[in-house]
Amino acid sequence: MLQKLAGVERSGGTLRVRLKDSGEFDPYVYEQIKADETCLPLMQETKGSLRYESAALTSLAYFLEHYRFAREEAYRFIIQLLEQLLKANRVKPVLLDVRYVFLPPQGTFFRFVALPIKAEHWHLQKRECLEFVEYLAVHMQTAEAYEIIGFLIRVTKGAEFSLPAVLQGLHTLRPLYEKKQSFLERLRRKHQEDGFHARVKVLEEPYREYETAQDPAKEPAYAATTLLQAPAQQAFLQDDSASYPLPGQEVIVGRGEECEIKIDSDQVSRHHVRLRQNNGRWYVRDLRSSNGSWVNGKRLQREMRLREGTELRIADHVLVFHDAKDR
Predict the structure, then answer these.
(1) Which domains are assigned to the chain?
(2) Helix (H, G, I), strand (E, B) or coil at 322
(3) 252 phi and psi, to 5 degrees?
(4) Could you read off the pLDDT of 286-309 as tens digits, one per residue?
(5) Which of 7, 85, 207, 293 allows an S-S link to 286, with CB 3.0 to 4.6 Å?
(6) What one-character DSSP code corresponds to residue 137?
(7) How far separated are the first and last CA of the chain, in Å rounded?
(8) CA nearest 257: which of 104, 53, 77?
(9) Can you state the percent helix, strand and coil of the chain, rounding each to 5?
(10) Considering only 87-91, 122-126, 159-163, which range has the smallest mean pLDDT?
(11) What is the DSSP-derived secondary structure letter of residue 64?
(12) Can you give the pLDDT at residue 233?
């Protein structure tokens, strides 16, 4: 699909895509993409220019570079990735490139860049899929799930390669990665999520990149990106384990998967606080949370301004606000 694009630019929490031929834009596929939660949120700026929102998400390339999978984690991650990819691609073209597959810092779901274009043969092509799986086999870091890595390498050499076949083959490895459970454990597991959840968060630092789409025949879809300038100066929140950039004009912090900043705590409400930027200043408001919010020890009952070093406590979680321009 890269051959359909004139360029891709990622800046902060926004991904902009330019089509080579604006006449290929398909309004029907565009509406399908907007209604599909497996796709990055999409807005059409002009007929040939598209804007995707990727705030608080990490690219798959960055995640694989910075996360080491435990044995069962590797299995759950790869199964979840391929299942959601095939679902997204079922009725719309997807850009199969590890730089443009996104996931939250916990890796609990994936979001894909779907292209609203007219294309007769837009289902994932064998060569693109082959390169994608080869990349996974080489870049997944694990010292325990060697059966998965070996399977991925072996399956790319087969004559009948396809992503559905890869997924089917991975399912046959399930007994190796799931411990035998008692009846009570199986019953309890029915009520729990069976997907991947990273032990530590993987947060991609804000940056700006630009690239011209290459002919896939000349360069693999996962080729390295050239960074053209230093990370953008941007406000962020920080806790004991991670930093959370504040892209755009408004950021929701809470427990919900849809939040730009997701906090894993039962004490934090689904939508806990909203941060907004106005004239270069950041403000915070509590969204009627169950367990409250505090700014420098003072209960947050109205919108308050955040300054460099301000301590923001939401329920049992403490974050410190940093404004890049004041540092």
Answers:
(1) 2-189 (1.10.510), 236-326 (2.60.200.20)
(2) strand
(3) -100, 130
(4) 988 889 999 999 999 888 999 999
(5) 293
(6) H
(7) 42
(8) 104
(9) 30, 25, 45
(10) 122-126
(11) H
(12) 56
Query: How far, in Å, CA of 208 to CA of 66, rounded?
Result: 19
Give me the chain's average pLDDT, please.
81
Cα gap 149→239, rounded to integer Å: 34
Looking at residue 305, the DSSP 8-state letter turns out to be E
**Nearest to 77, CA basis, from 113, 108, 112, 37:** 108
Distances (CA, A) of 77 to 165, 185, 264: 17, 22, 19
Structure tokens given for 238? 């920080």
Cβ-count burial of 82 within 10 angstroms (0-12 exposed, 13-18 middle, 19+ buried)?
buried
Max intra-chain CA distance, the chain = 65
Cα 107 from Cα 34, distance rounded (Å): 22
Averaged pLDDT for residues 34-41: 91
Of residues 228 and 319, more confidence is placed in: 319
- Position 270 confidence tier, pLDDT thresholds 50, 70, 90: confident
Three-state secondary-structure class, residue 81: helix
Work out the average pLDDT over 16-20: 92
Query: DSSP class of residue 84?
Result: H
Residue 84 CB partners (closer than 8 Å, separation 6+): 38, 109, 110, 112
Residue 108's closest CA among 193, 179, 167, 33? 193
Interval 1-10: pLDDT, tens:
677 888 888 8
153, two tokens: 């390498």
- DSSP secondary structure letters along 22-55: GGGB-HHHHHHHHT-TTBPPEEEEETTEEEEE-T
Angle at CA 70, nearest 5°, toward 66 and 75? 100
Residue whose structure tokens are 């209960």? 299
Model pLDDT, residue 226: 29
pLDDT confidence of residue 235: 87
* Pairing assessment for the beta strands 261-262 and 250-254 based on DSSP bridges: parallel
For 242-262, what is the mean pLDDT? 83
Residues 137/142/147/149 CA torsion (nearest 10 deg): 0
